[in-house]
Design goal:
Elements lengths: L1 H20 L4 H24 L5 H21 L4 H8 L5 H12 L3 H38 L1
Helix pairs in contact: 1-2, 1-4, 2-3, 2-4, 3-4, 3-6, 5-6
């Protein structure tokens, strides 16, 4: 129970902090913060079942985009209101830090590894977001045409 509850609450408050920083309206604050908490849960659950660096981030990117698009439809707001706070827990900050540290200390192999891993993570999150957002955009255009 503790293994799931603490990361969920931590991701929720991290997302809430950035939602406050970006002036998300009070009525959307909790919903936007839940996006980040659920994304981090999807990451942790997927990470338990896979041995990959990229797949958990890809699944989390899909979950963020799906949650954001559905919340945007329900609450009649732009999807970015929910999307940006949702991405925050997934940002590979430690990986980026270690990559820059390796660069500063002249560790070329560590820098190259960290750079590739950071690009993989960013690409996986982006691909998940793009797939779902594109699907919803196509769906909306077909609905509005009819």
């Amino acid at each position: 129970m503790t293994n799931i509850f603490v990361p969920f609450v931590s991701a929720f408050f991290a997302s809430m902090g950035f939602a406050l920083l970006y002036n998300v309206r009070k009525r959307h604050l909790v919903i936007a913060s839940l996006c980040g908490a659920f994304a981090w849960m999807f990451y942790l659950i997927t990470d338990m079942f896979t041995n990959s660096l990229v797949i958990p981030y890809f699944v989390s990117g899909i979950s963020i985009a799906l949650y954001s698009e559905l919340a945007a439809t329900i609450f009649k707001s732009p999807a970015t209101v929910f999307l940006i706070p949702g991405i925050i827990p997934l940002v590979p900050g430690l990986t980026i830090y270690r990559t820059m540290e390796a660069c500063l200390y002249g560790d070329i192999q560590g820098f190259a590894e960290g750079l590739v891993n950071t690009l993989k993570i960013g690409g996986a999150i982006s691909l998940g977001l793009i797939l779902i957002s594109s699907f919803f955009k196509i769906l909306r255009t077909r609905i509005y045409k009819k």
